[in-house]
Amino acid sequence: GVGTDDFLYGNAKEYAEFCVKTGKVINFSSNDAMGVAGNAASVISKASALGYTGSCARESEKYTITVNSLTPAGNATAEEVADTVALLVSEEGRAFHGQHLKVTHSWVQP
Question: For 14-58, what is each residue's pLDDT tens digit?
């Protein structure tokens, strides 16, 4: 999956096989995906993580698993990020699929 180190699986088939084994996939990106002056490489990396999440969500629909991404804002606490992850991996989290959630202090916004 795509993590904070931006490791990517080779193709959607490999990713879907990974998803079948785990059931829930949460990728992480950052606010850099929306653009940062003087740091084009980071913008490309983080924005591609969001696009990759969407593509893998579509590819994995037949496996009845969820694929989502989180973008923790600078003011988000570790507890708020952990609570959002807990929601996504819970039974209630099945309602989220192919979503990019921005976690900010005391608020999660789609």
Answer: 666 665 555 788 988 877 667 767 777 777 777 888 888 899 899
> CA-to-CA distance for 59 and 54, rounded, in angstroms?
9
Nearest to 3 by CA among 53, 66, 58, 60: 53
- Which amino acid, residue 97? H
pTM above 0.90, yes or no: no
Q: d(Cα 89, Cα 81) in Å, to the nearest integer? A: 13
Q: C-alpha angle 50/57/43, rounded to 5°?
A: 10
Nearest to 56 by CA among 18, 106, 94, 95: 18
CA separation, residue 23 to residues 16, 20, 38, 64, 67 (Å): 10, 6, 38, 8, 9
* pLDDT tens for each residue of 61-78: 877 789 999 988 888 888
